[in-house]
Protein backbone atom coordinates (compact mmCIF):
# COMPACT_ATOMS: atom_id res chain seq x y z
CA UNK A 1 0.00 0.00 0.00
CA UNK A 2 1.42 3.39 -1.02
CA UNK A 3 1.46 6.03 1.73
CA UNK A 4 0.77 9.41 0.14
CA UNK A 5 1.23 11.13 3.50
CA UNK A 6 4.88 10.10 3.58
CA UNK A 7 6.54 11.67 0.48
CA UNK A 8 4.29 11.68 -2.55
CA UNK A 9 2.10 14.56 -1.43
CA UNK A 10 5.17 16.84 -1.54
CA UNK A 11 5.96 16.12 -5.21
CA UNK A 12 2.56 15.30 -6.65
CA UNK A 13 1.77 18.75 -8.04
CA UNK A 14 5.17 19.05 -9.72
CA UNK A 15 5.13 15.55 -11.16
CA UNK A 16 1.45 14.97 -11.90
CA UNK A 17 0.02 18.43 -12.52
CA UNK A 18 -2.17 18.96 -15.58
CA UNK A 19 -1.83 21.53 -18.32
CA UNK A 20 -5.02 23.50 -18.97
CA UNK A 21 -5.36 21.90 -22.41
CA UNK A 22 -5.16 18.40 -20.92
CA UNK A 23 -7.65 19.23 -18.19
CA UNK A 24 -10.07 20.65 -20.78
CA UNK A 25 -9.70 17.54 -22.93
CA UNK A 26 -10.57 15.34 -19.96
CA UNK A 27 -13.59 17.47 -19.06
CA UNK A 28 -14.85 17.11 -22.63
CA UNK A 29 -14.30 13.34 -22.53
CA UNK A 30 -16.29 13.12 -19.29
CA UNK A 31 -19.06 15.39 -20.59
CA UNK A 32 -19.42 13.17 -23.67
CA UNK A 33 -20.20 10.18 -21.47
CA UNK A 34 -22.49 11.42 -18.71
CA UNK A 35 -26.08 12.72 -18.79
CA UNK A 36 -26.53 16.04 -20.58
CA UNK A 37 -28.69 17.55 -17.83
CA UNK A 38 -27.10 20.21 -15.63
CA UNK A 39 -26.31 20.62 -12.82
CA UNK A 40 -24.83 17.24 -11.92
CA UNK A 41 -23.59 16.18 -8.51
CA UNK A 42 -20.19 14.53 -8.80
CA UNK A 43 -18.03 12.31 -6.61
CA UNK A 44 -14.28 12.55 -7.24
CA UNK A 45 -13.13 9.37 -5.48
CA UNK A 46 -9.42 9.47 -4.68
CA UNK A 47 -9.34 13.18 -5.41
CA UNK A 48 -5.77 13.63 -4.19
CA UNK A 49 -4.61 17.25 -4.42
CA UNK A 50 -7.74 18.23 -6.35
CA UNK A 51 -6.36 18.04 -9.88
CA UNK A 52 -9.86 17.56 -11.32
CA UNK A 53 -12.25 18.57 -8.56
CA UNK A 54 -12.73 22.33 -9.21
CA UNK A 55 -12.93 21.73 -12.98
CA UNK A 56 -15.66 19.14 -12.39
CA UNK A 57 -17.65 21.77 -10.49
CA UNK A 58 -17.17 24.32 -13.27
CA UNK A 59 -18.03 21.85 -16.03
CA UNK A 60 -21.05 20.16 -14.49
CA UNK A 61 -22.42 22.98 -12.36
CA UNK A 62 -23.31 21.06 -9.24
CA UNK A 63 -21.67 20.22 -5.96
CA UNK A 64 -18.55 18.06 -6.18
CA UNK A 65 -17.28 15.90 -3.33
CA UNK A 66 -13.59 15.05 -3.31
CA UNK A 67 -13.12 11.96 -1.13
CA UNK A 68 -9.49 11.27 -0.26
CA UNK A 69 -7.96 9.16 2.55
CA UNK A 70 -4.60 10.99 2.63
CA UNK A 71 -4.71 13.88 5.10
CA UNK A 72 -1.72 15.61 3.47
CA UNK A 73 -3.22 15.36 -0.01
CA UNK A 74 -6.51 16.80 1.30
CA UNK A 75 -4.64 19.67 2.96
CA UNK A 76 -3.00 20.60 -0.33
CA UNK A 77 -6.33 20.33 -2.16
CA UNK A 78 -8.01 22.60 0.38
CA UNK A 79 -5.23 25.18 0.05
CA UNK A 80 -4.67 25.11 -3.71
CA UNK A 81 -7.83 23.71 -5.34
CA UNK A 82 -10.69 25.31 -3.46
CA UNK A 83 -14.01 26.13 -5.13
CA UNK A 84 -17.37 27.26 -3.69
CA UNK A 85 -19.06 24.10 -4.96
CA UNK A 86 -16.33 21.69 -3.82
CA UNK A 87 -16.16 19.85 -0.50
CA UNK A 88 -13.18 17.68 0.38
CA UNK A 89 -13.94 14.77 2.69
CA UNK A 90 -11.90 12.27 4.64
CA UNK A 91 -12.99 8.85 3.49
CA UNK A 92 -12.09 5.68 1.65
CA UNK A 93 -13.49 3.87 -1.35
CA UNK A 94 -14.80 1.15 0.93
CA UNK A 95 -16.64 3.65 3.16
CA UNK A 96 -17.69 6.68 1.11
CA UNK A 97 -19.04 9.39 3.47
CA UNK A 98 -22.06 10.28 1.30
CA UNK A 99 -25.74 9.27 1.35
CA UNK A 100 -27.18 6.64 -0.95
CA UNK A 101 -28.12 7.77 -4.46
CA UNK A 102 -26.62 11.21 -3.86
CA UNK A 103 -24.40 11.56 -6.95
CA UNK A 104 -25.09 11.62 -10.66
CA UNK A 105 -21.70 10.20 -11.50
CA UNK A 106 -18.37 9.34 -9.93
CA UNK A 107 -14.87 9.80 -11.28
CA UNK A 108 -12.08 7.38 -10.40
CA UNK A 109 -8.94 8.75 -12.01
CA UNK A 110 -6.04 6.32 -11.51
CA UNK A 111 -7.26 5.51 -8.02
CA UNK A 112 -8.96 2.12 -8.44
CA UNK A 113 -5.71 0.13 -8.21
CA UNK A 114 -5.09 1.60 -4.74
CA UNK A 115 -8.36 0.31 -3.28
CA UNK A 116 -7.80 -2.44 -0.72
CA UNK A 117 -11.17 -4.16 -1.24
CA UNK A 118 -12.22 -3.44 -4.82
CA UNK A 119 -15.52 -5.33 -4.68
CA UNK A 120 -16.60 -3.48 -1.56
CA UNK A 121 -15.56 -0.20 -3.19
CA UNK A 122 -17.62 -0.93 -6.29
CA UNK A 123 -20.61 -1.80 -4.12
CA UNK A 124 -20.17 1.51 -2.32
CA UNK A 125 -20.16 3.28 -5.68
CA UNK A 126 -23.33 1.43 -6.67
CA UNK A 127 -24.86 2.70 -3.42
CA UNK A 128 -23.78 6.33 -3.80
CA UNK A 129 -24.48 6.79 -7.51
CA UNK A 130 -28.12 7.32 -8.45
CA UNK A 131 -29.93 4.75 -10.62
CA UNK A 132 -29.16 5.71 -14.21
CA UNK A 133 -25.89 7.30 -13.11
CA UNK A 134 -22.36 6.39 -14.10
CA UNK A 135 -18.88 5.69 -12.83
CA UNK A 136 -16.04 6.91 -15.04
CA UNK A 137 -13.08 4.62 -14.41
CA UNK A 138 -9.77 5.95 -15.72
CA UNK A 139 -7.40 3.08 -15.11
CA UNK A 140 -4.85 0.72 -16.57
CA UNK A 141 -5.45 -2.99 -17.03
CA UNK A 142 -2.68 -5.53 -16.60
CA UNK A 143 -3.44 -7.17 -19.94
CA UNK A 144 -3.60 -3.82 -21.79
CA UNK A 145 -0.72 -1.83 -20.36
CA UNK A 146 0.46 1.26 -22.28
CA UNK A 147 4.01 1.60 -23.54
CA UNK A 148 5.26 4.55 -21.51
CA UNK A 149 8.46 6.15 -22.78
CA UNK A 150 10.18 6.24 -19.40
CA UNK A 151 9.85 2.48 -18.87
CA UNK A 152 13.03 2.01 -20.97
CA UNK A 153 15.12 3.56 -18.19
CA UNK A 154 13.75 1.39 -15.38
CA UNK A 155 13.80 -2.30 -16.37
CA UNK A 156 11.36 -3.51 -13.71
CA UNK A 157 8.90 -0.59 -13.91
CA UNK A 158 6.60 -2.15 -16.50
CA UNK A 159 6.23 -5.34 -14.42
CA UNK A 160 5.73 -3.34 -11.22
CA UNK A 161 2.98 -1.30 -12.85
CA UNK A 162 1.26 -4.31 -14.39
CA UNK A 163 1.14 -6.02 -10.99
CA UNK A 164 -0.73 -3.02 -9.54
CA UNK A 165 -3.64 -3.48 -11.95
CA UNK A 166 -6.20 -6.17 -12.64
CA UNK A 167 -6.89 -7.56 -16.11
CA UNK A 168 -10.01 -6.17 -17.78
CA UNK A 169 -12.00 -9.40 -17.36
CA UNK A 170 -11.38 -9.37 -13.60
CA UNK A 171 -12.60 -5.77 -13.40
CA UNK A 172 -15.63 -6.76 -15.45
CA UNK A 173 -16.44 -9.64 -13.08
CA UNK A 174 -16.13 -7.45 -9.97
CA UNK A 175 -18.28 -4.77 -11.59
CA UNK A 176 -21.07 -7.24 -12.31
CA UNK A 177 -20.92 -8.62 -8.75
CA UNK A 178 -21.33 -5.06 -7.44
CA UNK A 179 -24.46 -4.45 -9.50
CA UNK A 180 -22.89 -2.17 -12.08
CA UNK A 181 -22.71 -2.66 -15.84
CA UNK A 182 -19.79 -1.95 -18.16
CA UNK A 183 -21.25 -0.20 -21.19
CA UNK A 184 -18.40 -1.02 -23.58
CA UNK A 185 -14.71 -1.85 -23.76
CA UNK A 186 -12.39 0.91 -22.57
CA UNK A 187 -12.20 3.96 -24.81
CA UNK A 188 -8.75 5.30 -25.59
CA UNK A 189 -8.69 9.05 -24.97
CA UNK A 190 -6.11 11.24 -26.71
CA UNK A 191 -4.85 13.85 -24.27
CA UNK A 192 -1.69 15.89 -24.29
CA UNK A 193 1.24 14.69 -22.23
CA UNK A 194 4.95 15.43 -22.19
CA UNK A 195 5.74 15.88 -25.88
CA UNK A 196 9.55 15.78 -25.76
CA UNK A 197 12.26 13.83 -23.95
CA UNK A 198 13.12 16.89 -21.88
CA UNK A 199 9.49 17.47 -20.88
CA UNK A 200 9.09 13.81 -19.94
CA UNK A 201 12.23 13.87 -17.80
CA UNK A 202 11.19 17.09 -16.05
CA UNK A 203 7.91 15.42 -15.11
CA UNK A 204 9.17 11.98 -14.14
CA UNK A 205 12.22 13.15 -12.15
CA UNK A 206 9.98 14.06 -9.20
CA UNK A 207 9.08 10.36 -8.74
CA UNK A 208 5.44 11.31 -8.28
CA UNK A 209 4.30 8.01 -9.81
CA UNK A 210 3.63 5.35 -7.21
CA UNK A 211 5.71 2.99 -9.38
CA UNK A 212 8.87 4.47 -7.91
CA UNK A 213 7.86 3.49 -4.39
CA UNK A 214 8.50 -0.12 -5.45
CA UNK A 215 11.72 0.15 -7.47
CA UNK A 216 15.21 -0.63 -6.09
CA UNK A 217 17.31 2.43 -5.29
CA UNK A 218 20.15 1.40 -7.60
CA UNK A 219 17.75 0.96 -10.52
CA UNK A 220 16.36 4.43 -9.94
CA UNK A 221 19.82 5.96 -9.67
CA UNK A 222 21.06 4.46 -12.93
CA UNK A 223 17.74 5.04 -14.68
CA UNK A 224 17.50 8.71 -13.82
CA UNK A 225 21.15 9.25 -14.75
CA UNK A 226 20.54 7.80 -18.22
CA UNK A 227 17.22 9.64 -18.56
CA UNK A 228 18.83 12.96 -17.64
CA UNK A 229 21.65 12.37 -20.13
CA UNK A 230 19.16 11.74 -22.94
CA UNK A 231 17.16 14.81 -21.91
CA UNK A 232 20.31 16.91 -22.16
CA UNK A 233 21.53 15.44 -25.45
CA UNK A 234 18.19 15.26 -27.33
CA UNK A 235 15.85 17.58 -25.39
CA UNK A 236 13.53 18.37 -28.32
CA UNK A 237 13.07 14.83 -29.60
CA UNK A 238 9.33 14.33 -29.87
CA UNK A 239 7.59 11.44 -28.18
CA UNK A 240 4.48 9.64 -29.46
CA UNK A 241 1.24 10.30 -27.61
CA UNK A 242 0.07 7.49 -25.32
CA UNK A 243 -3.74 7.12 -25.29
CA UNK A 244 -5.41 6.79 -21.89
CA UNK A 245 -8.01 4.11 -21.15
CA UNK A 246 -11.43 5.19 -19.82
CA UNK A 247 -14.08 2.68 -18.83
CA UNK A 248 -17.74 3.65 -18.28
CA UNK A 249 -19.77 1.80 -15.65
CA UNK A 250 -23.55 2.23 -15.43
CA UNK A 251 -25.85 1.97 -12.42
CA UNK A 252 -29.02 0.29 -13.78
CA UNK A 253 -32.34 2.00 -13.16
CA UNK A 254 -33.49 -1.14 -11.37
CA UNK A 255 -31.33 -3.51 -9.35
Describe, in plain words, how this protein is organized in 3D.
There is one protein chain. The protein is of the alpha/beta class and 255 residues long. It has nine helices and eight strands. It has helices at residues 4-16, 20-31, 53-60, 71-80, 118-128, 157-164, 168-177, 197-204, 217-233, and strands at 40-45, 61-68, 86-90, 103-109, 129-138, 181-182, 187-189, 244-250. β1 (40-45), α3 and β2 (61-68) form a beta-alpha-beta unit. The radius of gyration is 18 Å and the shape is globular. It starts with a helix and ends in a 5-residue tail after the last strand.
What structural class do the secondary elements suggest?
alpha/beta
Shape: globular
Quote the average pLDDT. 94
Strand content: 15-25%
Characterize the quaternary organization of these chains.
Answer: single chain
Distance between the termini: 33 Å
Instruction: Profile the largest sheet.
Output: 8 strands, mixed
Short account of what is shown:
With 255 residues, this protein is an alpha/beta fold.
Amino acid sequence: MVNYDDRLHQVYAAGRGLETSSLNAWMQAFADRVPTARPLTVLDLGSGIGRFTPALAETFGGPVYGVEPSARMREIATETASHPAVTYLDGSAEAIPLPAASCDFALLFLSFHHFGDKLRALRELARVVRPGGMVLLRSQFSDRMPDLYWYRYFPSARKVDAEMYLPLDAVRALTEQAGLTILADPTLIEVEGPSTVQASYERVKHRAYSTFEHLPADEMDSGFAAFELDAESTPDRELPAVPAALLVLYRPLRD
